[in-house]
Amino acid sequence: VQLVESGRGLVQPGRSLSLSCAASGFAFSGYYMTWYRQAPAKERELVAVISSRGGDTTYVASVKGRFTISRDNAKNMVLLQMFRLKPEDTGVYYCCRNRYAALDVTSCEYGGQGTQVTVSS
After folding, report:
1. Which of 81, 88, 72, 78 is nearest to 110 (CA)?
2. What end-to-end distance do the CA atoms of the chain give, in Å?
3. How many CB atoms within 10 Å of residue 32?
4. Do residues 59 and 89 lie in contact, with contact meaning Cβ atoms separated by under 8 Å?
């Protein structure tokens, strides 16, 4: 199993950024996928979850309405579009394969190395 995130960047507050995660080594379309983030000196936080076919999603309250998780099962990719970014969105963002086929039960079974997002003026 391999998950490789890309799209790191330094952006100003209020701007947008998109992250991608390329998956390989498993039957991607059969798994729920998640994005986590970890800010400096804080615990890792679940950001968003997407069902295996992409029809259902859920978000942590702090990003709801600003972030969009999506997936392309033909390309084995999961995306995170981030709009109206805030300084508190700063952190390392990780793509994970969820252990469970559920939106409300999450556990990172396999994760990537992460990509840095910094929101600062």
Report:
1. 78
2. 37
3. 22
4. no
- Count of residues for the chain? 121
Q: How far apart are CA 62 and CA 34, in angstroms?
A: 16
**Closest C-alpha among 81, 2, 70 to residue 33:** 70
Structure tokens at 82: 């981030």
| pLDDT for residue 105 | 87
The residue type at 14: G
Alpha carbons 64 and 53: distance in angstroms, whole number: 20
Average pLDDT for runs of 10 along the chain of length 121: 93 97 97 96 96 97 98 98 97 96 91 96 94
